[in-house]
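Hey, can you fold this?
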Amino acid sequence: MPDVAGNVVGAIRVSTIKQGMDGDSPDDQQKLIEQYAAGRNLNVARYFVFLESASKEQQPMQEVVNFCKDPSNNVKQVIIKSIDRFTRGGSEFYSDLKNQLDACGVSLVDVYGIIGHQKINTLDHLGVKYKWSEYSPTKKAELLEAERAKDEVRDIQTRMIGAQIRYARMGYWVRRSLYGFKNVHIETREGKRCVLEPEEKEAPLVITAFELRARGTMDDSEIVDELNKLGFRTRSYAVRDKKDRTKIIRTIGGIELSIKQFWRIVENPVYAGVNPEKWTQGSPVKCKFSGLVSYELFNAANKGKIIIVENSDGIQIHRRKPPEYLVKKGTKNAEFPYKRIVMCPTCKRPLYGSSSRGRLGGKYPAYHCDQRGGKHFRKPKKEFDETIQEFVKNLRISPEYIDALMEYVGEAFDKQLIETNRDTVTMDLRLAELRDQIRVNVDKIKMVNSETTIKYLEEDIAKLEGDAAKLTQERQTYEQQKPIEMDKMKAYVRYFLEHLDELLLNYDNPIQQAKYFGVIFNKAPTYEDIVSGTPDCTKLTDVNEVFKAKMPQLGHLAGVARLELTTPGFGDQCSSQLSYTPLGLVISI
């Protein structure tokens, strides 16, 4: 037993919160240290408690060593439960920490007695001592114990992570749940395993995000705004102290959806029930649980950039890089909206638009081709636009097709009513959640005395009340809107199908109008195709089947084009739009 003519400190460490609560808790370690000290008439002056896992760069016990190095603290002994509680970094880190203690005259002891303090001099019988002749007979056992503790960490991680990798490849979920899901453990042939199930408040918002993206009538920023109006808020997470994992510093999250997070959600195949994570070695695995959306809806929402295909070879994910001309800046120009819609008649590449300056300083806008094969093509903007207008005015949909299309209007209208009702339910759930959070914060104020804490709680309550008031106003707007009568809605649909020029030519946004014009064709037309199609547009082979004079087979109707009715608001004022998405023909009323 070493001489203890000074202070004694105890060092306690647990690696995880769960470990700190079960079996090897700080209280259990402290009781063992106290029992050890009481049996030797020692009084522990101070305890160091570390509730964190060690890393190679920073050892938690270094703080104890630094405390012992200070002569004013007069520390002579450090008591630990065992070597694996002192460090799990192996013999290298153990030797470094213990040598620092030995250099300042502080002895390290453990409850189990593995660490010895006897020094043997192999030349003691000759009355001579060197550094190399003096050694500790227990040092080898101490280093072996330190290496055993390190090996135990590797064994535990191998068992845990290895099992997770196997379960991930089998289709189970082994990570924190994604937004829209919750982790649920079920009994399986492989034992109790984790799968994802829809979270009742978040799942409808994720489904709405995919549906709005696939529909194509709103850009991404508008979809994000719509989801935030419906009450989308990110999950809240606790940020814990690095040294004391049981101490919560602050809470993050609970904010509105951003455009980047929206992209991460829409592009994540897990929402379609396919897991392509790194543990599957790049091979997508079909999950043991259903996703929130189908493969078709996922592919439509990603517009062909990410495609999920299931065939005889299994599940495959294809990623297509966008063409270079689509990712260049400046492709959208309201002055030349058709420059990416209509192709050059010579080289079949997209046309450009620009204004040349004449000798007198005047500008002459025109569509032209800058490619080598079509560099001589140039058409004044006025003449170009007139050709487009003449083409659209001659465009007709056969009456037989319109009659057949009307049969599907009722079903589409019912679907819209269901979606609207789902949005109101989502708002109600979000309102209830906000009110619950307000009540919880009010109860907290009653239990605390700190003015600073009360101030922050009052700020949180004010913010929650503001969100609740805003959402209540949105909810009232939904209630005040009058539903459109079925006959009135059908009349609008029939009118605009019979007068397509009002949809394709009288739109306020020139860029969107050009996109609607591109809906007419299965393949991007050249300027010569439009010119030749002006007298009789039905002769063009690239015109979509919807716009041909002949009645398509009803069996192919759903595959050729499907009517969807999207109503921004059920009111008396109606506006109409036409677009063509992977889901089909879309008429917004």
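Oh, and this one too while you're at it.
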Amino acid sequence: MKKLMEQMAQELCAAFEKAGYDPAYGKVTASNRPDLCEFQCNGAMAGAKAYKKAPFMIADDVVACLGENSMFSMTEVVKPGFINLKVKEELLADYLEEMSADEKLSVTAAETPKTIIIDYGGPNVAKPLHVGHLRSAIIGESIKRIGRYVGHKMIGDVHLGDWGLQMGLIITELRHRKPELVYFDESFTGEYPKEAPFTISELEEIYPCASGKSKSDEAYRNEALEATHLLQQGNRGYMALWNHIMQVSVTDLKRNYDNLNVSFDLWKKESDAQPYIPDMVNMMKDQGFAYEDQGALVVDVKEEQDTKEIPPCMLLKSDGASLYTTTDLATIVERVKLFDPDEILYVVDKRQELHFIQVFRCARKTGLVKDDLKFSFLGFGTMNGKDGKPFKTREGGVMRLENLIADITEEMYRKIVENRSVKDKDADETAKIVGLSAIKYGDLSNQATKDYVFDVDRFTSFEGNTGPYILYTIVRIKSILNRYLEEGGNPEEGRILSAVNGSEKSLMLQLTGFGATVESAFEEKAPHKICAYIYEVSNAFNSFYHETKILSEENKEQKESFIKLLGLTKKVLETSIELLGFSAPDRM
């Protein structure tokens, strides 16, 4: 369906053309002065120079050509040349009626659906997820959902770090602690045990212990480097241990990501890219892209227009070892081979921007990708505490993600029980649902590229621009609709009528913006736009609710209209939070 703003622009363009001006000036925007009008057209201001004419004269001509049969109840010229507009109530009601019947609620499906891979995980195995992993997961998941809603094929990849020195460190520490394990017996030829010789808790303790030793004990570090080398050469016992590490770690990672309502289509690992490295490196050498510099193999990626130094992209270290750059490039090779994507989007810490500039340029320069493959980098800011520094535990350490979720859930449980709005047996589950909204909305309502302060008290509040406030609004609508059903009403009967008061029209106008908001949020990779939108919708609904007697309305048709409008509001809000990655309870 054609969006309301598009319909209005169509009329303005026709009026500009009829008045003898370029129809391109007929763009319509939402008013920045809602006390004066609902929409505005500033095309006369832009056209003044081209036509050497005062903008208010152009605007007068255009309004005269709109005529009385247009879709506007008010067309007003305000000096120096703004055209202020109000839409007719009956046309607005008809539009919402059509929108409520549209499966996509006015979102236009992509004309040419694209295959887009999103890299939004990046955890290292054998390490617990911490708050530093939160933003990538939350932002990437939302963009994936929005992309699917507008019709693209979105493929989410966790891209696990599983092939570096950390594996050698874990194997070395296990050898020191349990030298009797069969994995270290080079003469063993039988089948290795199916059960891992460690739990996830033990594994999470082993790695930091080994990492600490390697920083102060050079012999230990060299042993770990050798173990890493042997693993990458396919040592049978070490490969068996690696499989155990992967199984135990991935099981735990999936549990933690499930708690965040985040899922991945691919659980690819750095090791999956290893088979592509030799041929890739040889190609770059053979074609003259790669050369030796102080023993390392590098590719120049600087360009003439660079205003700052862009160092060469390093493929191999002087000892022949690969780096993150190498595996990221090989991963691109694998993704192109397996999925032939139109775009690869990396949702990562903005401090990694230089690394990805090098990777993208190297991939293009060396012909690893076609010219029309788009690389996108969405670098997100830091999640900080109230002190303005990266979020930490009270003890000053990096907070585990599951502990953050538990703390927020506990705070929501306390507030829900205090409100006595939910029975005790349901309070736990409700607290989890509302707690997740507090975390995700608290993050996503900020522009991704900016740092923000994670304020537990503010994010868990039922008032203001928060996830719990949005959910409280949805629950309020659900309650009214349920009562209407209990009274014998059918929410599907009747149709949306013209607004009876200003607050109803404000709500109706807000609802018309859903399609444009979702499409813009995807184009700009900006979930915060959806957050800002549903906050405005929630405020508009609550104003309407407080000013209007809905269930006690005596006129049957008018009551059905109110209920139909509530149903559409609920659908818009629930669809929006689904795109953001959380849901609403039935009560709270």
